[in-house]
Structures are given as structure tokens and as C-alpha cells.
Amino acid sequence: EQSIREKNKLFESILEDMSDAFIAVDSLHRITYMNKKAITLLMLPETDYTGMDANKVLRESGMAEIPTLTYNGKSNQLEAKEFYSSRLKKWIDYRTSPFEQDVAIYFRDITEKKYAEAKLFLSENHKQTAFSTSPDAISISSVETGMFTEVNDGFLTITGYNRHEVIGKTAAGL
User: What is the largest CA-CA distance in the chain?
Assistant: First the structure.
């Protein structure tokens, strides 16, 4: 019995030290374990959630998108998705993984990552717009071969070439 308690303590320590929020759910959709990161991310009061209905806890904390479907013994499918929680005002990445008759739910806040992706997209979009609409002749060519890989309309207007005449050729080949 001492050995079992020590193993449980080690297991709990591992779950508390992991970077993801974690919830274990049994076949009756009851929470069997929730780490402190999950409580913090869900903005829940510090209490013991063991035995509570996981669907209700997730729904009330703005995470209804996370399914707590239990393993049916036929499929070992891992589910992974992202969604925006309007209650938490955060982007959430989650993974559910069946084990035996239970389900492990791992999730984390990816809001900063999503904002960085959006900023990069807008930046790339602005660069593409500037490249495409500039009246100046702009070209992109391979460093290794010197072949044109892209030219803008300004380049085509100034040089008089069509795009298909330029792409894949070198300046010397024109």
C-alpha cells in the first residue's frame, strides 16, 4: 500500500509539473483528476473537482467545444483541435486521448501564438500587395541559378515581356 501511495504521489507530481492543463475523465464523464494549470486556465475557484460532471465544468467555463467522449473499446483515436473561447477570451488548443475506459484531456492557451500568426499573415499580405501593385520593376530570382521565380506587373510593363516569357529564365536569357 505504501508503494501505491508513492506511485500516486509521483504521478500527481508529474501531472502538476507538465506545461499543459490536464483533466482525466472516467467513463461516466466524471472528473477523476484536474491539475492546477487546468483550474487556472479555466479561471475556476480552487477546489477539488473530483467526481464532478466534466461536461458541466467545461461548458460553464467556456470550453464546451472539448468533448469528453469516453473510449468505446473499438478506437484509440486521438482528437486535436483549436477553438476560440469567448468566455475566456483565449484561443485554446486541446487534445483528447482515450486510455482504458477513460479519457485524458490536455489543453493550453495558444492566444499569443494565434496573434503572432495573424500578425505574420498581415505582414506577408502587405508585402505581397506592395510587390504586386508597385509600378517599379521588381523581380525575385534564385540565388543558385539566377532564374526568375516571380516578377511583378511593373516589371512586365517596363520590360514589355509576358510573365510566362520571364519565369524560369535568367536575365541573360531574356
Answer: 85
Cell of 118: 495573424
SS3 5: helix
Length of the chain equals 174
Question: Which mean pLDDT values do the consecutive 10-residue runs of the chain (174 residues) have?
Answer: 82 88 91 94 92 92 75 59 89 87 90 90 83 90 90 94 93 90
Q: Which helix (H) or strand (E) holds 7?
A: helix 2-17
pTM of the model: 0.65
- SS3 string, 85-153, reads ECCCCEEEEEEEEEECCEEEEEEEECHHHHHHHHHHHHHHHHHHHHHHHCCCCCEEECCCCCEEEEECH
